[in-house]
């Protein structure tokens, strides 16, 4: 019986989760948790925070799959929805920790390897835009990744990256200007 779930895409698994199918939830978790964990680790070095965010994300998926399943027809949107939940939970964890400890948010780090979404995005970009993106300083690319690829607000990005909101806005503006100049 398990084989029948293996052939389903994430969107269909999510629709089954919305109907209360625990096997579909298990299959969705097994399929997406390793990927989601890797993405969270790229943005947070604290394993405890990553584990907590992962748990809260899947709890939210179980509770609210029905709302997404009705609007989701493709597996990509189901996976995107899953990442959106996780990203917001990660920002919430940073906020909570910063309030509780009165210290800057959890230290994040840049990895050398590009993220899968960056590779996919780069593959569909005009060569000039791709070159301009890679020419940006790392601190500008980091802000663009959070705001554009992850869809976070300036405030959420500031919490995620542990920097003032004004710095995030300035870096986002500098990145846009640099891209515009490189492409003109």
TrEMBL record:
Stretches assigned to the RNA polymerase sigma factor 70 region 4 type domain: 128-179
UniProt entry keywords in alphabetical sequence: Sigma factor, Transcription, Transcription regulation
Domain of life: Bacteria
A UniProt-annotated Pfam family: Sigma70_r2
Span of domain RNA polymerase sigma-70 region: 28-100
Gene Ontology BP annotations: DNA-templated transcription initiation
NCBIfam families tied to this protein: sigma70-ECF (TIGR02937)
Protein family according to the UniProt entry: Belongs to the sigma-70 factor family. ECF subfamily.
Protein name: RNA polymerase sigma-70 factor (ECF subfamily)
UniProt organism field: Micromonospora taraxaci
Top-level taxonomy: Bacteria, Bacillati, Actinomycetota, Actinomycetes, Micromonosporales
């Amino acid at each position: 019986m398990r084989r029948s779930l293996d052939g389903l895409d994430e969107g269909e698994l999510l629709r089954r989760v919305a109907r209360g199918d625990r096997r579909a939830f298990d299959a969705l978790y097994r399929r997406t948790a390793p990927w989601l964990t890797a993405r969270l680790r790229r943005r947070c070095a604290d394993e405890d925070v990553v584990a907590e965010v992962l748990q809260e994300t899947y709890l939210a998926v179980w509770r609210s799959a029905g709302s997404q399943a009705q609007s989701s027809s493709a597996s990509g949107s189901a996976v995107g929805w899953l990442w959106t939940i996780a990203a917001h939970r990660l920002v919430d964890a940073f906020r909570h920790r910063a309030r509780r400890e009165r210290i800057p948010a959890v230290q994040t780090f840049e990895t050398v390897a590009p993220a899968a979404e960056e590779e996919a995005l780069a593959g569909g970009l005009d060569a000039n835009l791709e070159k301009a993106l890679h020419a940006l300083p790392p601190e500008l690319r980091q802000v663009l990744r959070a705001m554009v690829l992850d869809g976070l607000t300036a405030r959420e990005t500031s919490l995620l990256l542990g920097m003032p909101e004004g710095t995030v806005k300035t870096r986002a503006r500098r990145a846009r200007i640099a891209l515009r100049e490189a492409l003109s």
